[in-house]
Amino acid sequence: MRVRKAVFPVGGFGTRFHPITRAIPKEMLGIIDKPLIHYAFEEALAGGIEQFIFVTRQGKNSIEDYFDGMLAEFETKNGAPECSFCYVRQREPRGLGHAVLCARHLVNDEPFAVVCADDFIFHSKSCIGEMIKNYNGANMAAVMTVPHEDVYKYGILDIEKEQGSIVVAKSVDEKPSVEEAKSDLAIVGRYILSPEIFGVLEKLKPGVKGEIQLTDALLEMIPRVGLHGFKFEGIRFDCGFKSGLLAAILHMANKDKKLSAVLKKFYKENMSD
Fold first, then answer.
1. Looking at residue 79, what is its pLDDT?
2. 187: which strand partners?
3. How far is CA 192 from CA 49, 102, 137, 159, 240, in A?
4. Per-residue model confidence as pLDDT tens digits over 20-53
5. How far apart are CA 225 and CA 128, in angstroms?
6. Is 100 a residue whose pLDDT tops 90?
7. CB 153 within 8 Å of CB 240
């Protein structure tokens, strides 16, 4: 079945960016001239997604306003776009699994994508689009190798076998200790999921940090659905942290001829020994 819908979990508090995120959603923080959420949208659109489902919360109306304005501008220039937008509220952040569960009535009984905007993946190809091309019915998550000392920050795969860009997992562990991690292959914020996951999430008990963890649902489903890791191409920036957002901004600035010249001038004048 074709993957047409994508869920964007954007209901978090963005506490690492306080105080600015008391007024501006983390997903609306800018990378040059576009907010983070716009890059995630462009990636999903390029990957063939037709329905965009945003799981928001109180205080995040600016996300809706942004896309309303963008669509109005697009329609004026090009006619009505071949995509639709839906919004659902998450009353309180209770983990990624809970955010996905909030979109159940909009996804219905079909496979769907999940795109976490604060994982900014830069490449000429759409990461989620490449995952959709390789989707065969098993749950799928984007994966990358991380330094072993950082495994405690991620969901880590226990690998059964590798087939090119696809890794077949026999288990997955959410934020294991450095000593207990089965590999250095970590899940980042892109998923293609079976709709069966909603029934699992509904009954799931809170896991790490007292939250409903999507990783725990993926683990439970491995025996009957399977779990594949997709080793994506490109550079990933963790924009959930100040350092990652700054790195993404500098990277994108360096890709622009005029801004690259500004950076070089700044480094020469301020960073010389």
1. 65
2. 143
3. 12, 16, 9, 18, 21
4. 998 899 999 999 999 999 999 999 999 999 999 9
5. 20
6. yes
7. no
For the chain, what are the domain ranges?
5-270
d(CA 221, CA 167) in angstroms, rounded, equals: 16
E strand residue ranges, 25-179? 30-31, 34-35, 51-56, 84-89, 112-115, 119-122, 139-145, 155-163, 166-174
Q: What's the confidence (pLDDT) of residue 272?
A: 66
Query: Using CA atoms, how far apart are residues 25 and 37, in angstroms rounded to an integer?
Result: 10
Prior bond to 19 cis, omega within 30? yes
Decide if 49 contacts 113 (C-beta within 8 A). Answer: yes
DSSP-derived secondary structure letter, 211:
S
**Are 160 and 169 contacting, i.e. CB atoms less than 8 angstroms apart?**
yes
pTM, 2 dp: 0.93
Local structure of 104: helix, strand or coil: helix
Length, in residues, of the chain? 273
In angstroms, what CA-CA distances link 162 with 78, 228, 230, 231? 44, 9, 10, 10
Give me the CATH topology for the region 5-270: Spore Coat Polysaccharide Biosynthesis Protein SpsA; Chain A (3.90.550)
| Spatial contact of 16 and 240, defined as CB atoms under 8 Å apart | yes
